[in-house]
Amino acid sequence: MYELFLTALVEDSDINTALAVLSGFCSMQPWESISRVLYFQGPPRPSGITNQRSLEKPIRKDVAMLWKELHQNLSRQSFVLQARYEILKDRDLGPSAEPVDLDTIPGILRWTDFPDPPRNQPIIAQRKKVELWDQRKLLSVLQENNHQLKTETVEEMYRFFRDDVEFCLTRHYFVGPLENYVPLSSGQAAPTAPMPTLPAWDSLTRVDAQNRWILQVKAHVVQDNKPDEIKKAQDQLLKFRADLEGVFDFKVFDRRVHDTRVAMQPQGVQALPQKVLLGKS
């Protein structure tokens, strides 16, 4: 699948106006959802998804094709993948929430490629994408294929649809101490398992210090080898951008902000430690 999208930032003070505008533009009320997002880093040397012991059997043909596509991409380059689980505020957050074995519930496995270099329309980001929905034992599959849990967040989203185009307003929250999210920190060690329970909603810390929302307007092309379909999706996004001019300020962002690649380790070179303690040998 090929994903094309526009991006704009929305101030927290403008969120109600943004929701009202998009509700009218798409002729629908927003779909609100909360997701628990776990980030898994692939191995220094890519090896794909070769261990399929924990994949649910039998595998439907369409799902098998997606696993194959994911394997091919992860064989050429390691990436940070997302395992995503929809949660409810009153059920899954806070002291009354019951611990959950994430391997027993269905989730979404998401991979996104490094976006293409900007060409004729730099305002539109374009990248390959694979999503596997309703998959159990995702944590086992990833760990058995040498993917290491790095961190997790909670994502708040409002979603709209119009003409097969998706409008997503999202905001992310830290679920643990901030030092857990700082690279090369001398604090907590890298997690080996997801948090047993999540803190209360009111205690979560927003990832963006300015409390902004991210608006992405997305179009998808199932077969990325059809330039006519990609051009059609581009034209649709540009039309919607023009329709919403003066309401949302869509900007060109450096494609490196969407870079989920893992630096490759050359053969014969020892990996450096992930945490550095200054002044200690």
TrEMBL record:
Gene Ontology molecular function? transcription coregulator activity
Could you tell me which Pfam families the record lists for this protein?
Med18
Listed A to Z, the keywords are:
Activator, Nucleus, Transcription, Transcription regulation
InterPro entries tied to this protein: Mediator_Med18
A single GO CC term for this protein reads: mediator complex
- Does the keyword section mention ATP-binding? no
- Family (UniProt): Belongs to the Mediator complex subunit 18 family.
Q: State the protein's purpose.
A: Component of the Mediator complex, a coactivator involved in the regulated transcription of nearly all RNA polymerase II-dependent genes. Mediator functions as a bridge to convey information from gene-specific regulatory proteins to the basal RNA polymerase II transcription machinery. Mediator is recruited to promoters by direct interactions with regulatory proteins and serves as a scaffold for the assembly of a functional preinitiation complex with RNA polymerase II and the general transcription factors.
Q: How does it assemble?
A: Component of the Mediator complex.
The identity of this protein, by name, is Mediator of RNA polymerase II transcription subunit 18
Organism this protein belongs to? Trichoderma longibrachiatum ATCC 18648
